[in-house]
Specification:
Layout: H1 7-13, H2 15-21, H3 37-43, H4 55-59, H5 65-77, H6 83-96, H7 109-114
Helix pairs in contact: 1-2, 5-6
Length: about 120
Amino acid sequence: MGVQIDRKRFEKMFPSLAKELDGRRQSVAINSVRSDVRTGESASTDHFSVYMPDVIDFIRRCDTPRQAAAIINYLETQGEITRTYAQRLRSQLKEKGVRSFGAKKEDGYYLEKGGH
């Protein structure tokens, strides 16, 4: 026994879910590399209400190069970053280390920096 619902009504009620069920992907382009800590910090916003973390933000949560490499691999596999960009990130990780992407973002980082 299931619930029957008209396709158009379903799409109107749940547009994102309808797109996901149709197999259409939604993604956000990530096209920046912050190799200088000061530049990266100055690019951050005071309010994170509409902020979408990028690969650098995820890497900055890592403790080890192995964790950072896993993040890069995953986002590349998911199509969230390009192969070229992933290679640049891996190169920076290998040559300069995980902290070259910026200071570690600890728990509560966004609450503290966002002023909430």
